[in-house]
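Hi all, posting the design record for the shared folder.

TITLE: backbone redesign
STEP: 1 of 1
STRUCTURE INPUT:
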């Protein structure tokens, strides 16, 4: 069974950093684009970033460009989201999911992804 598990969330002050992890079990990540999405209270889900299976292609939402970096270690079957210069508006539950198609010009639509993890909560507050 394909499964993704997110970790690394927590409470951080504005300007701080967190690194989220998305670990896969039941399948090899090499062949999948992995995307990160976030859901903030009262807001629509937002595609944050994606990375292709080889790691050669990445994409970011405008709201996080220059602050977040997505990477992957296929040997560890894990994708990471390094989040720096965090803002209160980054507060959300962050989810990772898998996509067969390449990471293209945008993160893509939530409905295109599968094997969603349970999410990890990020709270940015002083």
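Okay, here is what came back for every position:
SEQUENCE:
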């Amino acid at each position: 069974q394909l499964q993704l598990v997110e970790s690394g969330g927590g409470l951080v002050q504005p300007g701080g950093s967190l690194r989220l992890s998305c670990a896969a079990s039941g399948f090899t990540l090499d062949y999948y684009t992995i995307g990160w999405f976030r859901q903030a209270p009262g807001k629509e889900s937002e595609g944050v970033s994606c990375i292709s299976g080889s790691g050669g292609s990445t994409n970011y939402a405008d709201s996080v460009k220059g602050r977040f970096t997505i990477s992957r270690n296929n040997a560890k079957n894990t994708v990471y989201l390094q989040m720096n210069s965090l803002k209160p508006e980054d507060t959300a539950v962050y989810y990772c999911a898998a996509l067969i198609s390449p990471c293209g010009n945008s993160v893509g639509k939530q409905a295109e992804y599968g094997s969603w993890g349970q999410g990890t909560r990020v709270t940015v507050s002083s």
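COMMENT: The mean pLDDT is 94.
Let me know if anyone wants the other runs.
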